[in-house]
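Hi team,

As requested, here is the filled-out complex form for the adenosine-5'-triphosphate run. I kept the field names the same as last time so the parser does not choke. Let me know if anything looks off before we queue the next batch.

— J.
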Amino acid sequence: MLNVQNLTKRIENEPVLQNISFSIGEGSIVGLIGRNGVGKTTLLRSLVGILDLDEGEVLFEGKNIALYPEVKMAMVYVPDSSSTFNGYSVKELVALYESIYSDFDTEYFYQLLDRFTLPNRKVRTFSRGMKALLFIILAISTRARLIILDEPTNGLDAIVKRQILQFLLEEVSESQLSLLISSHHLDELEKIADTIIMLKEGKVESVVSMDEARLHYKKMQVVFKEGGLPQEFISHSNIEVLSQIGRVHTILIKGNTEGIVEQLTAYQPLLIEELPMSLEDMFVSALGGDDIV
Ligand SMILES: Nc1ncnc2c1ncn2[C@@H]1O[C@H](COP(=O)(O)OP(=O)(O)OP(=O)(O)O)[C@@H](O)[C@H]1O
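And here is what came back:
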């Protein structure tokens, strides 16, 4: 559906994004992660044409968005703070969206407004959570095929977060809608994303499907009689020691996980137990340090 090819973006002559390539398929939920300032927002804004590219192309269903601006109607961007619309009422926002998006579904919008018990009044009077929900509802009502969300759950309480994520999941499962979500909340992304794109130093560090990642990583807790982790595992390139408390080592195994577990077991540890693994574990390990959020 969306193909990004060798996208490069410079700001004030500094390369912020370099040679970014990835694609997003129909009905998929893609998480975009990386450290503060790595260029996530710049990338999202470049994808929808708010920023011009210096090099590369963004193709939506094979059509370059710079040459066919009408395909942008099928993509909607939800920025992380929508304070610019504070002066609008809900009704005025609806009129604005109707004028921009020819397929805007006004009836569905008001149904959703009702469902989430949002008031029909000036946006200025909305709390942060209400505003976040409102702009997601507006985006969904455009009937766009790709929704690009920048930090959609930033600063929201646990209940609103859950409401938003649940709602987005419902929408994806009911249609062939795709989502690209930038977030520092890896725990949330892990619950909904099927693919994760990680940016590092302005480049794509990795594009990993969550299923694949789960197959290739294992988190284990091990305790050995002699106390320490045997030397061959300390220097093993496929083992990362995540923590050590006394004799208890928590390790992350990459690659041939079964083979390494067998080798560990051969040392007859006092305890060897698999732990649930998080997206954060995987990517902290992939970056070789606490380099992720
Ligand atoms: N208008 C601008 N003028 C100058 N530099 C900018 C501008 N916009 C972005 N940058 C720079 O581009 C880089 C990427 O910024 P961007 O906001 O895309 O990062 P981000 O990954 O979204 O960060 P965060 O996670 O903190 O939201 C940063 O170094 C930032 O300082």
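Two things worth flagging: The chain has two domains: 2-201, 213-286. The first strand starts at residue 2 and ends at 11.

Thanks,
J.
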